[in-house]
Amino acid sequence: MNKGQLIDMLTNSLGITKTDSKACVQSVFDAMTAALAKGDRIEIRGFATFKLKEYSPYTGRNPKSGELIGVDGKRLPYFKMCKELKKRVNK
Predict the structure, then answer these.
(1) Helix/strand/coil for 91
(2) Chain segment 42-77, per-residue pLDDT in tens
(3) Quick one: three-class SS letters along 22-83?
(4) Measured between alpha carbons, how far is 21 from 39 in angstroms, rounded to an integer?
(5) Which phi and psi (to 5°) does residue 31 adopt?
(6) Which of helix, strand or coil describes residue 17?
(7) Structure pTM?
(8) Are 82 and 46 in contact (CB under 8 A)?
(9) Contact 41, 26 (CB under 8 A)
(10) Domain limits of the chain?
(11) How far apart are CA 56 and CA 65, in angstroms?
């Protein structure tokens, strides 16, 4: 499912306009993005938890030349599904 399909499903199930559905979906995504950008954890019970994982800088190797290069530290979003979702998916 992509964002457009989610918007269509919301439009059909709630009987609202596609514009309103798009605004709702975008609002949720914006709120989640803002929370993660602040370093907050997002927990949606019965679905999943989203949080940021911190990765330390390290020395890597350029696969083409073999040269050692420094890789900066980074923060990446991490998704962990809850047990209920895992059970539903693995039926």
Answers:
(1) coil
(2) 999 989 999 999 999 999 999 999 999 999 999 999
(3) HHHHHHHHHHHHHHHHHCCCEEECCCEEEEEEEECCEEEECCCCCCEEEECCEEEEEEEECH
(4) 27
(5) -65, -40
(6) coil
(7) 0.76
(8) yes
(9) no
(10) 1-40, 51-91
(11) 24
